[in-house]
Write a structure and sequence with these properties.
This protein is of the alpha/beta class. The chain has 8 helices and 5 strands; from the N terminus they run βαβααβαβαβααα. It has a 5-stranded parallel β-sheet with strand order 3-2-1-4-5, with helices on both faces.
Length: 163
């Protein structure tokens, strides 16, 4: 059975890490969609799709990498076009994993949707983590080691402050 998990992963944090682990416990293969792949260097989307893909791959155990494939999913202003784009890019999947209300609502009409329990949402939020990065607060404990490694090559404070 194949599953599909989509997120922006700005950055890939421990909440995302737990979501991937949960999804992999339910399916044989997991297709991970990096949403907003056509966006970068924006306040909500400071990291490129390539950077986010590297974060994910560097954060997962090598034994799991054979069970996932990552797809870059651009944004559309139209949900129907967005779903059509996903279905043209991503192989067939049986389950969708999402906590986003709009995404879950759209997909519930065409697929089984699993809600993933959010872990420590008060701190494991991309917005909160990006703000911590920008203001020099401690953020490294909120992301997996692979994300830390990828982000260590970026001047985060500078990048986030100019956005």
């Amino acid at each position: 059975m194949n599953g599909f998990l989509i997120g922006r992963f700005q950055p890939f944090h421990l909440g995302h890490f737990y979501a991937v682990q949960f999804a992999l416990s339910k399916v044989n293969m997991l297709w991970i969609g990096i949403g907003s792949s056509n966006k970068k260097n924006e306040k909500r989307n400071p990291f490129s799709a390539t950077e986010r893909k590297k974060m994910i791959l560097a954060s997962l155990d090598k034994s799991l990498l054979k069970r996932i494939k990552i797809y870059l999913i651009p944004d559309f202003d139209d949900h129907i076009k967005w779903i059509a784009a996903i279905n043209s890019l991503v192989p067939k999947y049986d389950l969708v994993f999402s906590n986003d209300i709009v995404t879950a609502s759209i997909y519930s009409k065409i697929s089984k949707v699993f809600t993933i329990r959010l872990q420590d949402r008060k701190i494991l939020s991309g917005t909160i983590i990006r703000n911590k990065m920008m203001f020099g607060d401690e953020w490294k404990s909120l992301v997996p080691r692979g994300t830390k490694t990828i982000l260590s090559n970026i001047d985060l404070k500078k990048r986030l402050s100019i956005l």
